[in-house]
Amino acid sequence: MFTLKHRLPYGRGSASTITSRASILSRGRKGVSALVVLCALAAIPALAQDANFGFSVPMTLSAGGMYTERLQSEGPASPITGGFRAMFYPTLKLGSHWFAYAAVQVRYAPYFYYDAYDGDHEFYNSLIQAYLGYSFRAGQASVVLKAGRLSSAFGSYPLRYDDLENPLLDQPLPYITQLSLAANQLPCGVKDLTSQSYGGVWFGCGGAPGWVDGLTPVTLYGLPGIEADISGYGFDGRLQVTSGSPANPQGIGDVNQYAQWTAGGGYTIFQGFRVGVSGFRGPYLDPNLATLLPAGTTVRDFPASAVGADVQWARGHWSVSGEWQKFWYDLPNFVQAPSVTTGYAEVRSVLSPRFYLAARIGWLKPGRVADDQGISAAEFAPSMASYELAGGYWLNRHQLLKLGYEWLDVQYQGGSHNNVLGVQFVTSIHALNWAFH
Rounded distance, CA 115 to CA 82, Å? Predict the structure, then answer.
């Protein structure tokens, strides 16, 4: 039986302006010891336009509750639980061109739907981004250069992950599902690969001992690197070189990482209608696996790569967005390596100035695999689909109440074990704002 365990991260600053708000998402790490320092670094500003220097700390505070049988995955437990989340978005403006930005998440789990597979109540905090930026104009184009800890330039969902930006309560499958693949263990072949479950794996051909976390198709965590964003004439583009793959994010202090590229861009056909593409390619396996690889090869010979397309459309009371993505994970011992095709479509209708309805349909399908022993399988893991419906009510311009229900359909699993009924209260605060010359 397969169990699901989603892991989350997130966000990216705006490519066109340092004074617009970015949405950031994060996978947690235990403890809150760094919070005081991180709050001095994290956010996106609402600084006075006439100030050359300033510091701003907008934040989003959320409380949530859920009813789900996921809480019973590890034994008898109450199906009701809740938690809270605080997102801090500080920015330091250093003149007309320079700025410093970071993003911090603190949460008390279970808060996200994926938290419910482990019902323990714990605090987590994460530094998601921390970089120095320089913005300027080149003719009619706007350019932003960044260096530091950056969210991946792949995909479009991270730009609107904040609870006030996300009209629903959960997140699309490609950003939170842990596949039955690992960066620090090697499968011996198809049989080894297909015997694993979502969330954690234990392969037999070497690597880290015991059970390890599975890979998420594309991370929402930050990566050490540099990035150039440009926009103008209806086009927008981003080019990023990072240490570590979007399929296997690493910390700034980690060694033996490999530089690789990620790129994305889009075109606004007319106001309210944009289409975009993105891609990445580079090594993703842990360098400690080098001695287990075939003679004459290195981890560079087994990259992770991906292509994606996205679309956003809005008109009147309606808005629609969606993404399609395909990922490949090259591995030794395979003549047809694992791949995953995934995507989602989302629609929102504003019924009144205070009330809206939203829905999202998502799917994730693992691909065919074949090894060098002549064994193959039509898919290396079960397919899954998610269906979510939610309504939101604005109590005032800063406070939003959301109620939603999600159906999660996993191949070969029946019943309502993975379904979730959730409620969420979100408020935004923009009180911390200093401008100086």
Answer: 10
Instruction: Read off the pTM.
Output: 0.85
Tokens of 157: 């969902």
How far is residue 412's CA from residue 384's CA, in Å, rounded to a whole number?
A: 10
CATH of the domain at 158: 2.40.160.10
- The single-letter DSSP state of residue 209 is S
* Other CB atoms within 10 A of residue 415 CB: 7
CB 390 within 8 A of CB 404: yes
Tens-digit pLDDT profile for residues 407-434: 999 998 888 999 999 999 999 998 777 8
What's the pLDDT tens digit per position in 61-80? 999 999 999 998 878 889 99
| Buried b / exposed e along 162-195 (16+ C-beta atoms within 10 A) | bbbebbbbbbbbbbbbbbbbbbbbbbebbebbbe
Number of domains in the chain: 1
What span, in angstroms and rounded, lies between the C-alpha atoms of 277 and 353? 33
Phi, psi of 132 (to 5 degrees): -100, 135
Torsion, Cα 20 150 162 136, to 10 degrees, reads: 10
37 lies in some domain: no
Give the three-class secondary structure for 418.
coil
